[in-house]
């Protein structure tokens, strides 16, 4: 069993509560709208990080961050992007076990055609009355389970 920490939409704010919730992760996936390069540096203090560029990540520091990534863990492939509506492939046909995305600030977890779709919600500045959350993906063999973690902020 491997635990992946999943975070999105930090918008330059990495809360101590988010750091605490991600501790113990073998790897951290950041689904975009990072907001500042220091966010990734801080997350790397916990575990290695794979990140995608979000629509607000436009400054020069973000140029080398790809819009999409494929994270491989054993026999499971995870496709990462920021805006789900920009998904331009069929994850089930491409052999992905999960799709990780952000952008909406709304935590969501569902399975479609055998693929786990996972949005950890927003860990950055509170937006409207939405909860502040991060997520965890638990990978056991070829099975990917998800968990949304609500932060007490």
């Amino acid at each position: 069993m491997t635990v992946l920490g999943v975070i999105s939409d930090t918008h330059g704010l990495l809360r101590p509560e988010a750091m605490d919730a991600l501790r113990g992760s073998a790897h951290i996936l950041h689904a975009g709208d990072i907001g500042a390069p220091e966010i990734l540096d801080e997350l790397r203090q916990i575990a290695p990080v794979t990140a995608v560029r979000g629509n607000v990540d436009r400054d020069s520091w973000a140029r080398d961050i790809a819009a999409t990534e494929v994270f491989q863990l054993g026999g499971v492939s995870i496709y990462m992007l920021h805006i789900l509506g920009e998904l331009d492939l069929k994850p089930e046909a491409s052999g992905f076990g999960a799709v990780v995305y952000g952008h909406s600030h709304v935590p969501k977890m569902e399975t479609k055609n055998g693929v786990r779709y996972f949005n950890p919600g927003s860990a950055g500045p509170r937006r409207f009355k939405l909860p502040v959350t991060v997520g965890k993906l638990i990978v056991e063999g070829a099975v990917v389970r998800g968990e949304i973690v609500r932060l007490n902020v």
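The radius of gyration is 14 Å. The first helix runs from residue 16 to 22.
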